[in-house]
Amino acid sequence: MSNSIALDLTSIREAMAGFDESSHVRPNEPIGLDRVYFPNGHRGVLDLKRQLVVGNRGMGKSFWTHALTNFDVRKRIAEKYWNKQLEQAKPVIGFNGSDAKIGVTPTRDEIRTVHKSTNDSRMIWRAVILRAVQSVCSDSPIPELQNAIANLAANPSFYAEKLTAFDRTISKQGENVLVVFDALDRLADDWDSIRKLTKGLLEVVLGLQSFLNIRAKVFMRVDQFADAELFQFPDSSKIRNDAVDLTWRPFDLFGLLLFEIQRSANAGPVLGELAKGLGVQSELPSFRNAPPDPQKQEQLVTAIAGEFMGSSEKRGRVYSWVPLHLSDAANNCSPRTFLKAWKSAADHASPPPLLAVDHLGLIEGVRQASSARLRELEEDYPWIPKVLEPLRSQFVPMEKANLFDFWRNAKVVDNILSSSSSGGWLVPIGVVNNHTAEALLLTMTSIAVMEERANGKINVPDIFRVEAGIKRKGGVAVPRKR
């Protein structure tokens, strides 16, 4: 099915082919207002009362960390989400894994150095937070991190007294201070140290609830969030149970696609004309303030890419098929993966007249995006290939006992432990103190590369299965490598 108003969509195709493939937001990278799309489902992420945000690789943790530090972006976010508190916030980066010294934000080396000499990780983070708040509330000189820690150790009441005074000042001014933490897996080179530092951070952040206008926002990886040891402290449930899950629903993903097309000087007007002709102009990001209407949004997507993944509904509808085949075991698809699929589809052979892409291009796009997503996850979890390789040419879903046999025969856990030691990367957090297949499976499910179904069988989602050469029992086939 092509668009019914006979528009030439070549400019939309060209815009998609030109999508940026940059892999991630780097520490201290400035985020311009023109790059910021506002997913309706991320409203909770920006609630200052909810201090822990959890997301897998590529879901937007670092993006939001640095977008919040841009005044224009923060103001626009506050307007978009009707969040007055956010507009009045003064954000400071507490940690972002940077090697560069920017303001009062400690570098990786600074944190690692003070951790070697300071047994109490809570003391480190109290000093970090106190310096961050002081940087926006006072003109007095800010001590070096090591000196600030020594001062707190010598004066146990100083932290509470000083932070209370700052809190009163900014409360009278009707403002907030927000200290943002990201890239916690870069705090140290081993999980034991990362755990101690992260646990200490969470305890200190929880204590900020005693103050009126001083808050923290902690962005955390999903495998760390699944680590029960991090939350072994009193009242940890108050921060854990209120965590925000950083996810992208299908209508948010398609909204992002339309946003990126609309940014193009050539394609934007054509998209606007197409939406107007279909009577769905309200679904364009520049017009929409309310949540997307999936039915209207699908009309626009259908006009761009056709209705079906073939000649009929039997092969699936474009609007549901694409996000489904790009989703992990938690039913999440990263925005970068989604845009990669459409970019690759636009680079495929020319579609029929009056379409920007077609189902053949999207099939190839999903295959390429799947490959890219697996490589992307390997940057955070370099041991994934060792876990999946023994399953090549095997069928899923499979019995758990069979999975464990494949892993044991290939000595997967032993190989991961030895390779991490020589390669200088972190082992799966679940097997740090438990070198078993069961512990490895728990980590794989926490990062949504595998799922354990209600019947006990283990499945690998298509987005990882196809690239890893794993077969599937039944179901509609997904694209194979050419």
Counting DSSP E segments of at least 2 residues, the number of strands comes to 9
- Specify Rg, calculated over alpha carbons: 24 Å
Q: What's the number of domains? A: 3
Give the DSSP E fraction (strand runs of 2 or more residues): 5-15%
Spans of 5+ residues with little confidence (pLDDT < 50)?
Answer: none
Level-1 CATH class name of the largest domain: Alpha Beta
Share of helical residues: 40-55%
What is the CATH T-level topology of the largest domain?
Answer: Rossmann fold
Ends distance: 27 Å
Largest sheet: 5 strands, parallel
Provide the CATH architecture of the largest domain: 3-Layer(aba) Sandwich
Helix tally equals 22
Record the strand order, biggest sheet: 2-3-4-1-5
Q: Please state the average pLDDT score.
A: 91
Using brief descriptors, characterize the structure shown.
single chain, 482 residues, alpha/beta, Rossmann fold, 5-stranded parallel beta sheet, 22 helices, 9 strands, 47% helix, 7% strand
